[in-house]
Amino acid sequence: MSFGKYFTVILATAIKFFNGPIAGVLLGLTWYETAICSIIGMMSMVITMSFLGREIQKLIAKYRKTKPKLFSKRSRFAVKIWQKLGIWGIACFTPLFFTPIGGTLLALSFKVPIAKIIFSMLIFAIFWGIIFSFGICQAVELKKLFL
Description:
Blueprint: H1 3-15, H2 19-26, H3 31-63, H4 73-93, H5 100-109, H6 114-146
């Protein structure tokens, strides 16, 4: 049991979700260890950003020199997900398209209650953590068979 390996996966997932399962496989962790660390990494960032996110948004707005573009491809995509699926759509697509930081800030910008953000993100962190970790581990095992 190497806490350094676990911390690496947690940190990688906190920054960009897909990096955690890849790091777990490269470090030789089992798929379930990788999944647990990925879930912990995403949720640690979601919880941190849930409570600090509004302050960070204010700080960025204070020091921003130019006004941000209202309509970009990314903002239209986010609004479209929000209009069709609500917080569940944002939570579902956070590991895929947004980062844990970006998805949480996006949910906060739509004024979703913090408890709802944390709960919905937890559900999809578990779902995608298991899917990605197991899938990547299986792909690596298949590659080993054919080499």
